[in-house]
Amino acid sequence: MEKGFLELISPEQFRGVLATFSRLTSETLPLEGCLGRYLAAPVASREDLPALPRSGMDGYAVRAADCFGTTETNPSYLDLAGELDITEVSTEELQPGTCVRVVTGSSLPPGADAVVMVEHTADLGGGTIEIRKPSAPGENMMLAGEDAHAGQTALEPGIPLRPSEIAFLAALGILEVPVGRRPVAAILSTGDELIPPSATPRPGQIRDANAPALAAMAMQAGAEPLRMGIVPDSLEAIAAALAEAVDKADAVFLSGGSSVGVRDLTVEALSLLPDTELLVHGLAVSPGKPTILARSRGKAVWGLPGQVASAQVVMFVFGCPFLAHLAGDQAAFTRPRPSVRAVLARNVASRQGREDYVRVRLEESGDGGLKAHPLLGKSGLVKTLVQAQGLVRIPADLEGLEAGTTHQVVLL
Ligand code: AMP
Ligand code: MG
User: Fold this and answer.
1) Taking the model in full, what pTM does it have?
2) In terms of Cα–Cα distance, which of 182, 222, 178 is closest to 42?
3) Domain limits at 206?
4) Number of domains composing the chain
5) Is residue 1 within 8 Å of residue 268, measured between CB atoms?
6) Is residue 1 part of a domain?
7) What is the pLDDT of residues 170-199, one digit of tens each?
8) Which residues contact 400 (CB under 8 A, 6 or more apart)?
9) Which of 187, 255, 313, 382 to mutate to test the pocket of ligand 1 (most atoms within 8 A of CB)?
10) 2 in a structural domain
């Protein structure tokens, strides 16, 4: 097979290719197991939430019209018609000119359309309450059905289930939901020089640092890593390992051997696998140019660069969103990731025509902002990423970024 990259493809094109892989099937899980999963179907509410209008404050349920124009110097006076504790429900209509004392969470009596905070009132005794603030309909209260309406969609599919969605489902009494299956991500390393981290290297050997990093990142992305060890730089061994990985996993990540040198055998090994198509060899990004993507029996096989920084950056920028896509994230490639704004501490050069991901160390700049120090270390060093808190993207059409300019830093 002839050596050489295919045409380098842009990050946008790459994401387009990644999006062609089918999402995994779904399973129904109890709420406790849903954190970090993606909803696989719309969830409809069976009931109105809240079931009745509820107070958002301690105070007095009123008819807002009774308090129009009220001011500190021109208060309104209402007759206290009663008191509703947190579990009490009144079916008696609130009469004009009257109010009912409520606590936060009390159901409001029919006819009440606002709550005045206790801080803006005075109990004058003898059943008279002084109101010192105007009130607008809906103030300090929740309407019946404001959270969810019976029969309507409460949550859309394809969203991540965070603690807030889990709380919402619990409040609705929905105790199990369909979610995307958790992808199994096979992790392999190739290189004759590699030994497991548990072994002691002889001269010329190094410990496999990529597999632990990639497995950890896969877990962060919601996948289940399947560690499949180290494969020697042998065509047959790599092909056999990849075939087994495709069998056992939903996606395969092999680091090392992805470039175009004499020891770079991943592309050729892929050509030995049945029902396998090479989709990408060469990304217009740095670090990460020697990235491979193939489709083998419908599953994605990634060839990541062996350089630790390159492998981690490609996995973070593209691999993790891809795993989220498999898991059912409908916005996997566009969902904003946690990021901060920071001022670049020095100039960074970049070659036009490729997208750069500059690792940066963040520092508080004293004025409440953040400073980003580019870590222009040697990409073979493991520590550069330890020092980095984020990545700054330099778009392909720029020749670099200037010191003093402000940029979005995606947090690692
Ligand atoms: P390769 O992509 O196989 O040409 O590897 C590029 C560089 O990364 C070489 O110096 C390798 O020794 C190193 N490398 C490859 N795989 C790993 C790994 N799993 N852990 C640490 N370093 C690696
Ligand atoms: Mg190698």
Assistant:
1) 0.93
2) 178
3) 11-25+181-326
4) 4
5) yes
6) no
7) 999 999 999 999 999 999 999 999 999 999
8) 347, 348, 349, 350, 394
9) 255
10) no
